[in-house]
Design brief:
alpha/beta; FAD/NAD(P)-binding domain; binds flavin-adenine dinucleotide
Length: 428
């Protein structure tokens, strides 16, 4: 019987193909450590691995299984830079800060590859990423972006594609053009989750699954994390629950909002399929973004969202099929073997949320659909902070992230209305 994530709908192709997924015990009793981490996705596990490797006594609790949140269920795309383009950051913060944020993201990318290679984690990397335009009037921004990346930010890997090249590389004529980035690519995210947990455990981190933190208290230099069957008391705490935290900690909940996003995997399409012959991943210019790629075994993994609620995993294949057919009518009857979803943690300005929310307690998340490489790196930056160097984490802590309006009762309905509005705008 395949494992069904109790917190995210559907059984993912990633779970089906990750291989060995060793189960960790639940916490039973009281523990004392230097650092306690809540959340077993990329942020938490990467922090645990780096801390344990540096000799820090660290324990981590995960409410379900590692990777059951966004980290084991995402599109696997490693976007370059931050979620906001470097030129947008420059307009907001000036060149020096924008360049520092761009370089931080490039380090995040390098960190992901280096960490996987150094620890022999097979992540099924495939090179190439394309961002494509669904409205003609956006083209000039994409053309300028390719130029700016090379000349102003020293990143020569982005090239502009006209409509013809885009159609050839996608195997679809639905888009007007876009950019192609040969300096990045896409991965099997669950393999990275499980590999990182293995590294953390081997380095001595105490890892607990099926252990939900129910409360966090920070008093007199100690932080105590409570769970159903025990407590962990530490000097420092990292909250790494992203979109899955519910009401655990109110400041994080006010700043990071969950949005459902859904993915379907088709049967392998075969080597002669005209769809994405170069193997790149793709995202498009919609606000409610569509993202897709071929897997190592030739499937089309197609992600997106319709704005109405999808409560039943059985709805996901229909929803995904509708979107696939718009691009690839020949796939109207293709078999969708796996369909699943997860919650993306977004912030108001679509930039990461990193903040000390109580004394000695840092919360990190809200990567806004751009967290595969950033969240792993934030785990490393947190470990650096514990070692006494907070400079690089500070670059993210200093980003101004307002809370969502509406308070805890109205936040979700207001966001739903806003999403509907943006989805409508995507269509006109
Ligand atoms: C469908 C989908 C597609 C995406 N596509 C991409 C993409 O292509 N590229 C990209 O860069 N990003 C993408 N993202 C975003 C990316 O996956 C996330 O930014 C990243 O995984 C965040 O990792 P995290 O560790 O911070 O959070 P998560 O992986 O969500 O981990 C949080 C963990 O905390 C646990 N938790 C919550 N509450 C508690 C508690 N009280 N006690 C204990 N544990 C708790 C949860 O069970 C969960 O496992 C996508 C996300 C989704 C959902």
């Amino acid at each position: 019987m395949p494992h069904q994530s109790p917190i995210s709908p559907g059984y993912s192709w990633y779970e089906a193909t990750v291989g060995d997924r060793p189960e960790r015990p639940a916490l039973d009793g009281d523990l004392r450590t230097d650092v306690v981490i809540i959340g077993g996705g990329f942020t938490g596990l990467s922090a645990a691995a780096h801390l344990a490797k540096a000799g820090v006594d660290v324990a981590l609790v995960e409410a379900h299984r590692f990777g059951d949140g966004a980290s084991g269920r995402n599109g696997g795309q490693l976007g370059t830079g931050q979620r906001a383009w470097a030129e947008e950051l420059e307009a907001e913060y000036g060149y020096t800060r924008a360049k520092a944020l761009f370089e931080l993201a490039e380090e995040a990318k390098a960190h992901l590859f280096d960490f996987a290679a150094a620890n022999a984690i097979e992540i099924d990397f495939m090179p190439g990423q394309m961002s494509v335009v669904h409205k003609k009037r956006y083209l000039k921004h994409y053309e300028a972006h390719a130029e700016i990346m090379g000349t102003r930010f020293g990143y020569p890997h982005v090239t502009y594609m006209d409509a013809l090249e885009t159609a050839r590389r996608l195997g679809s004529e639905r888009y007007f053009g876009g950019v192609r980035d040969t300096g990045t690519g896409h991965i099997h995210p669950m393999k990275l989750v499980i590999g990182t947990a293995r590294v953390a455990a081997a380095a001595g981190a105490k890892l607990f699954e099926n252990t939900r933190s129910t409360a966090i208290a920070s008093n007199g230099g100690n932080v105590t994390v409570s769970t159903a069957k025990g407590t962990i008391t530490a000097k420092k705490c990292l909250i790494a629950v992203n979109a899955y935290g519910g009401a655990l900690e109110p400041v994080s909940a006010a700043h990071v909002m969950p949005i459902g996003s859904f993915i379907g995997a088709t049967v392998p399409l075969g080597g002669d399929s005209p769809i994405l012959p170069g193997g790149e991943s793709v995202d498009d210019s919609r606000f409610v973004v569509r993202y897709f790629r071929r897997s190592k075994d030739g499937r089309l993994l197609f992600g997106g969202r319709e704005v109405y609620a999808v409560d039943d995993p059985k709805d996901i294949p229909q929803q995904i099929r509708r979107q696939i057919i718009e691009l690839y009518p020949a796939l109207k009857d293709v078999e969708i073997t796996h369909a699943w979803g997860g919650y993306v943690g977004i912030t108001m300005p679509r930039k990461p949320f990193v903040r000390e929310v109580m004394p000695n307690v840092i919360s990190a998340g809200g990567y806004s659909g751009h967290g595969v490489m950033l969240s792993n790196f934030v785990g490393k930056l947190y470990a650096e902070t514990i070692a006494g160097n907070r400079d690089r984490l500070k670059l993210l802590e200093d980003l101004k992230i307002p809370a969502f309006p509406g308070g805890s009762r109205l936040r979700a309905p207001l966001l739903f209305l806003a999403l509907n509005w943006f989805a409508l705008r995507d269509r006109i």
